[in-house]
Amino acid sequence: MNSTPSKHAVGQYSTTTANLSARMAIHEFRTNPQDWFSWLADRLPLREDVLEVGAGTGRLWSEVGHDGLRLTLTDFSATMCEELRRVPGAEVRQCDAADLPFADSSFDSLIANHMLYHLDDPAAALREFTRVLRPGGRFAAAVNGRDHLEELRAIGPEIGRPELLRGLILNDVVAETAADLVSEYFTDVVVERYPSNLEVPTPEPILAYLGSLTDEPLSPAAESAARDLIETKIDADGNYPVRTHTVLITATRR
Ligand SMILES: C[S@@+](CC[C@H](N)C(=O)[O-])C[C@H]1O[C@@H](n2cnc3c(N)ncnc32)[C@H](O)[C@@H]1O
User: At a CB cut-off of 8 Å and minimum separation 6, what does 253 contact?
Assistant: First the structure.
């Protein structure tokens, strides 16, 4: 049952929140006036004992009121857990998603927001989620489609770094497949897409996003090639358009 975080997750998250923050920052340029966390807050099935796995910096809880809930936040990363301790009233545990330090049937709701696609063994995590949820407990997961951020993915090959965005989805848990996988463990599976794209007005947020994905910084030549490519598009269209494809999957523990 024990599983370790993926090599990619360790490189990205174990000692810094900066990579996650740079990637979240680009979503400021969304076309939907309602941001992702607020949209999610309107839909999360929250009841009494709530667990979030892979909770990152805990950004969700600045949007979602949790008065009256008993909130437990987990992440494998000590650095993320340090941030999570700022969330008022939350209990924080550092642990792997597939090896949760909780008794069977401990929670009424479990959230896995933008984290399933980082796991080497997502099925092991889903089994663990059903173990710690009570029968009838509610599960919510957010994942991305294969075409999510397609126009950012297109930059890597153009600047000699084709591997750059590959780490964004490490397994097959994508919008196109995740509902089938979740159905193997849960019932009443419902999928809803968050409607938004990005229109980025300057190169900087895109360059910061690309830089956040790699331990091997962009060379000056690669960065200059990326900047030229982005500026050409902005000069022609007024912004650099990027499609997004994110879904919320909700389900019930049998
Ligand atoms: C893209 S971030 C999302 C963070 C947060 N859920 C949010 O939406 O802002 C993915 C998070 O999952 C965590 N993570 C990755 N693999 C994990 C694992 N095996 N067990 C627990 N947490 C993990 C990372 O440390 C990171 O905080």
Answer: 130, 133, 134, 135, 136, 137, 138, 139, 186, 187
Query: Do 130 and 185 contact (CB within 8 A), yes or no?
Result: yes
The answer to the question of residue 233 being in a domain is: no
Specify the number of domains making up the chain.
Answer: 1
The C-alpha atoms of residue 251 and residue 249 are separated, in whole angstroms, by 7
What is the 160 CA–ligand 1 centroid distance (Å)? Answer: 28
d(CA 129, CA 59): 21
Q: 94-121 in b/e burial notation, b at 16+ Cβ within 10 A?
A: eebbbebebeeebbbbbbbbbbbbbbbe
Within a domain: 132: yes
* 215 within a domain of the structure (yes/no): no
Q: pLDDT tens, 22-78?
A: 999 999 999 999 999 999 999 999 999 999 999 999 999 999 999 999 999 999 999
DSSP 30: B
Ligand 1 center to 236 CA (angstroms):
37
Testing ligand 1's pocket by substitution, the residue of 13, 16, 60, 126 carrying the most ligand atoms inside 8 A of its CB is: 13
Task: Indicate which residue's Cα is closest to atom 12 of ligand 1.
Answer: 54
Q: Write out the residue range of the structural domain in which residue 162 sits.
A: 7-199+243-253
State residue 198 phi and psi, 5-degree precision: -120, 145
Which residue has a Cα nearest atom 11 of ligand 1? 54
CATH of the domain at 182: 3.40.50.150
